[in-house]
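Input/output pair, single chain:
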Amino acid sequence: MTLRIPEKGSPISLSQTSSIKSILRTLWRQRIVALKAIALLYIVVSLFVFTTSILGYLTRPSRPIYPNFPLTRTYDTNGSSPLNEMDTYTRFYKMHSKMSSGFTNNIKQYHKRASKIPEKDDITVTAFVTENRFEDLKRLTELWQGPISATFHISSESLDENDPIVQQAFDNLDHFLSQHPIVAKYVDIHVIANVVSFEKPEMLARPTNFHLNVARFFARTDFIFYLDHDTWPTTKTREEIRRYKKLLLNNDVISVPTFTYKVGATNLQIPRAREDIISMVRSGDLGLQDDGWELNRGPTCYASWQRGKVYKIDDFEVHYRPNFVSKKDNTAPWCTERFDDNKAACLYQMYITGSDIWVLPETFLIRHNFNPKSHLLRPSESKWAKAINSRLYTKFYREACVHYARQFIFKGEWDSPRSIHLKQECNRVLTNWGKGLVDA
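Output:
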């Protein structure tokens, strides 16, 4: 049947109208059939994909959830990894994202590698070295007789060996190591170049939290000893710490008491045993030092140490900054780098993430300035400098409280025993909110 279109103005007959309706019905039926075919194909494909996904999920091997997923290094300190070809700035960009590129882009790891390979469960001391403190590094090595990770700071804009400053520093270091084989045996030396002040390039460098992190990052043992400059261990300190390795494996921290000579002390002999310490404290020559507190009155608590048993720090304070030992891996937070030399910030983060702090009764450190003119002695700060540092630190520990609280909640550990310290500190911080605004 042929459909004839009437001319303009001609009426459409009933037979023509019936034919149009018949054609439209036929087209509609064909459309419904096509839609049904498409729907059926969609259902078949969906069932196939769903079945394949379910079978794949049920048959794939199980793997640990994220919190227990093993975290490993992405480089090899022995030099066999292709990632060693990465420039230092790229490698440290995430880890040290808050630091100036003047630091992160001028690092030479393992400039001198210790000839003795340390045991994994040993303790590595972090050390800071400048050219006029090589003798202090030798003294520390002779006392420690174990692995040391030292950052050697050169006051230069880069590590270009054509720079006379860098060339002279490397020559002096080579000469020093050739004269003292014990240092070459135990010390890994990593070089950092940066001018401390562009207005006064002759200014000498001071240790910072960044230097601590670099020394820790390249240490070759499982445990790190954060040791202040001009602080000396006894010959038994290392073995005493290793005796309590279980505390460190439990993600706790070991605080090693530091004793210093009182002003006007008459007996300046270096004590060798615990009994010598007690005798010299009684005679008024020595005192237990916690920075920011009077001698024998800090959180380390001399009365508790005197009892001769391992004890836990219960009266923690956010400014507490002893010489301490912790695990090296990422279970221990890194030192925040917004400060210069502020070890209290390092310990505070470890404490609020669940680490208990234990004090050893059979070992000790002695604070003694063999070089009273050393540029590393703490300088006198102006009133404004003290106020700025105080407020900056106040903001930090409040920020850290909130940051780690969110982490505990995210990991479902808010009600775990590890969150006890954080809850205590957050409660104290929140009830004193705003106090730092008026402290000076």
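Residues 62-84, 435-440 have pLDDT under 50 and may be disordered. Residues 65 and 411 are 11 Å apart (CA to CA).
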